[in-house]
Amino acid sequence: ILLATTRNISQPTGEWRLISERAFGLQAHSVLTDVLYVHKKRRSGFDPSLHVWAGTFFSVSFRTVPGFAAALIKAASYIRHWLRQNPDGYVLLSGLQLHPLTTVLPHSRIIIDNHGTPEEWIELRHPNPKQRALRYLYPVAKWLDRLAFKRCSGTLVASQPQHKYVLSNGAPRAWLVPCVLSSRTAQAFSAADRWASRKRHGIESDTTAVVYCGGFSEWQCVRDAVNLFRQIRPYLGANARLIMITPSVELAVQAAQDVGVDDAIAVTLPPTEVAGALVACDIGLMLREATITNHCAFPNKFAEYVAAGLYVISSPGLTDPAAVIQEYELGTLITPEEVRKGVAPERLSAVADQFHRSRNRDGRWRQSRRLLESTLSMEACISRFVSDLNNQPVQLATPARQ
After folding, report:
1. Which of 134, 149, 191, 334 is least enclosed by beta carbons within 10 angstroms?
2. C-beta of residue 93 within 8 angstroms of C-beta of residue 101
3. pTM
4. Distance of CA 30 to the CA centre of its chain
C-alpha cells in the first residue's frame, strides 16, 4: 500500500493514530505501508519515532496555493513511479485535497481513505473564521468526494454512517475499518503496571480515578466531561479524582476550576506513556453531541479506554461506539445536554452503582481482552480488506480521458 496523505501525521493526533494502527494491522497480513506525505512547510516530514509503521517515506512540501498545485503534480509523478515499481500495489488517497489525482491515475488501483463527510463543515453553530471559509467551500468538497468515489476501486471508512455515505455517493464498495487497536498497541495496555502508574501520577490506592484523555476542541465536550465529574463525584466515594491527559494543560486546569474541581491532575504525555496512565484509572469520559461529525466518528480513544479496562461514560451521539457500549455492557450513555441541565440525582446514583456492582475491574479486564481479539482488533477488522485486494485483479490500463 502507498499511503498518499495530506493529513497531519507529523504529530500524534487522532488521524495519526488511525493511520498508524491500520499500518500495524496490515503488517500482520504481510502488507507494508509506504508513505507519500504532502504537507505545508510548517509541518515536519519524517520523524522515526512517529513513523515506525512506515516503509519508505517520501515528503512533498508547499507554502502557497500555487505551491500546492506544483506539489500535486509532483505527487502524481511519484505515485505513477511507485505503481510501476509495485505492480501488485494499491494507492490509498487520504485527504480531500488529493482527490483530483483520481482523474489522472488508474482507477482500479486507487482506494479513498474517508475520515468523515463534508456536512461536518456546515453544522457548527459558532464557527471560527477558518470554519466559515470551509462552509463556502462545502459544494466543492461534495463535488470532490463524488468525483473520487466514482473513480476508485473502493473506500476505507471508520463507521457505519460513513459506510452509507460513501456508497450513496457513488463508491463501488466500502470496507469498514474503525479506529481500533493493533495487537502491538493492545499489548502495551496488558503490560502496563497499574499500581506503579497510579503511584507515579499521585493516585492513591483507594481513589476512583476518572479520566478524560484527548484534545480541547469544542466538539470534544471537555467542559461537559468536567462538569459531569463534578456532579457524579459525591456518588463515587470521598476519594474520587479527575485525571486529564491533554496537550492543553492550562485550559484543562482552568475548565476544572471553573466548575469547582480544584484538585484535578492535568498532564501531557507522549504516546508511549498513555497506555500506562489509562490503566491507572477506573472510569473514562468521552461525551459528544448528536451531530454529523460525531455520528460518523469512531474515536481511537474509545478502544484505548476499553483496552485499559475502564468503565466508559459516553454519549449516543457517537453512534458506533455507543452501540458497542450497550451490546457489551461496557459503561453508560449520557448526553452533554443532560449534563448542562444537571443530571438527576437518581441517575447519577444509578450510574455510580452500576460502576461499582455490574462488573469488577478484573471482569472488565477479561471482557476487554476478548473484544481486543475480535470487535476491537485492527488485525481482524482489516482482514476483509486485505482478502478482497488479494483476490481483486489489477488492471494496468490508464484512466479514460474526460
Report:
1. 191
2. yes
3. 0.91
4. 23
